[in-house]
Amino acid sequence: xxxxxxxxxxxxxxxxxxxxxxxxxxxxxxxxxxxxxxxxxxxxxxxxxxxxxxxxxxxxxxxxxxxxxxxxxxxxxxxxxxxxxxxxxxxxxxxxxxxxxxxxxxxxxxxxxxxxxxxxxxxxxxxxxxxxxxxxxxxxxxxxxxxxxxxxxxxxxxxxxxxxxxxxxxxxxxxxxxxxxxxxxxxxxxxxxxxxxxxxxxxxxxxxxxxxxxxxxxxxxxxxxxxxxxxxxxxxxxxxxxxxxxxxxxxxxxxxxxxxxxxxxxxxxxxxxxxxxxxxxxxxxxxxxxxxxxxxxxxxxxxxxxxxxxxxxxxxxxxxxxxxxxxxxxxxxxxxxxxxxxxxxxxxxxxxxxxxxxxxxxxxxxxxxxxxxxxxxxx
Length: 379
Prior knowledge:
Blueprint: H1 12-34, H2 36-39, H3 50-62, H4 64-75, H5 85-106, H6 115-118, H7 125-151, H8 155-185, H9 203-229, H10 236-263, H11 275-295, H12 298-302, H13 304-326, H14 331-336, H15 345-368, H16 373-377
Helix pairs in contact: 1-15, 3-5, 3-13, 3-15, 4-5, 4-8, 4-9, 5-7, 5-15, 7-8, 8-9, 9-10, 9-13, 10-11, 11-13
C-alpha cells in the first residue's frame, strides 16, 4: 500500500460527501424541530419506512461481516483473514452507527432513546433489539479502539485491550447472532399484515442467514473498493475464501426460500404479476440465484471484477429483502386500510447523508489510522 500521506482528503468526491452531509444536517435539524410528520411521509398505516428498512435493518445486516471475520481470526485462529479484520470491524462499526442515527431520527421522541437502558421490559422483542444495539455498538467500539490507541501512542490501554480482545470478540459474536435474528423476530407480530412471500415463523433464521451472506460480501466489496481507492493489492486468496463462504451461505438461504415456498404460498404466488411477486423475484433472482450461478463459474472467483459484481448483487439483494419486509411486503395491507407511503425528499436526503458519513469516516480512518497494516507491510 502507498503511504497514507498519499491519500488526499479534499478531493471532488470528498466535497460531494461533505455536501450530502451538510444537506442531511439541515434535514436533521428540521425533523427535530418540526417532528416526523413534517419531515417524512410516514403515517399510521406505514409507521416504518426508508429509515428503518434501509438504514437500520440494512445497516445492521451490513455489519454482520464484523463478527464473522473477528470470530474467524480471534476465535478460530484463521490467520489467513487477519489482513481484513480491521476494515471488517470498522465497516461493522459504521453500519451500526448508521443504524443508531436512523433509529434516533425515526423515534417519535428521540430524546428518550436512552429509556430502554433503564426501563427494562423483559418480554419485549423491541427492548431486546434496543439492548443488543447498545451492547454490540459498544463492543465494536472496543474492537476498533486498538487503532486509535496506536495512533495516540497509549500503549498501556492498547496492551489492556489486546489482552481482553478474545473475550470481547466472543461476546460480540454471541450478541450479533442474537441481534440479527431478533430483528427478524420483530416481524412475527405482523402475521396478518406482511405478505406471505416473506412472513413465516422462521423469519429470525432467514434474517440471520441472509445477514451472514451480506456480511461476507460486504467485507469482500469493501476490500476490493479500498484496494482500488488506496492503491494496494487485493488479497485474492482471502477474496476467494469469502466467495466460498458465500456459496455455502447463499446455497443454504436459497434452499430455505424454496422449502418455505413449497410449504407456504407456493411457486404460483411469485409469478402472479403483483408488485410483491415481482419484487420477490428481483430479490431472490438477482440477489441469490444469479450470484450463485456466477460464483459456481470458475472464472468469476479468479477475477476481482467478477467478485465485485457478485458482491454488489448480494448486498443489493439483502437490502431489497429488508425493504420488502419493512415496507413493500406490508404495502398491500396498508393500501387496503386506505394508506399509502413513498419516502419524502427529506427521508432520502437524510439516508444519503448517513451513507456519506460512513464513507467519509472510513476514508478518515484509512488516512490517519493503521487500517491496513498487513497491506502496508507487503509493499
